[in-house]
Amino acid sequence: MSYEEASDYFSKRDIAILPIGSIEQHGPANPLGTDSIIAEALAKEASRRTGTLCLPLIPVGISFHHINFPGTLSVSERALEQYTLDLISSLARWGVRKVLIINGHGGNLPTLQILSRRAREDLGVYVYIYQWWNSPKLEDLFDSEERGHAAAAETSLIMYLCPEAVNTQKLRDESLSREEINAVRFVYTDEISRSGIMGRQSSASAYRGRELFEKILEDLIEVIEKIRG
What we know:
By secondary structure, this protein is α/β, with parallel strands linked by helices. Helix content is 41%, strand content 10%.
């Protein structure tokens, strides 16, 4: 967009889509940018189908728990919160009052929830957070063992969206080792999964990924239409 095209959009719409991902391990078969690739693809296609402005991807999120795997990158909770709030502040200047974050990484969620509160209180902007793995469509296509980190659902999506980045010879399954204690603490991923995979990955396919992508988009477009009003 030129600034004139942007001005025309903002004169008609008060909503924008913002994809946020991560750069972190997704097992030996998948690229480090899996979360960012999926979030950006969903955001861009939803933008195309609904005519809603899509902002550039924020590629690096909060991934300290994966940091022991080579290539994983992370920023602090405070850094992601403030950077995104500053971005939304710029949008508010031009009349945006609703921002739909397509969050590709679960580790970002607690910070984005705080951001949502601050954006409303400080800027009068409503921030909605959409996470594809919470779509009710997912359970119709993949069982519980296939829905974990880097398992078949996520791997199927990346096989569909970016097949050249997936080494199908290295697909594997791994069960988690967990402490038997009724309390929560911070753990590194390599303490509970040697490969970084959480569940069954070997049943992934590009065909299943295409089907899932379209189902998620149906859900996402419905969300956009409700927010847009």
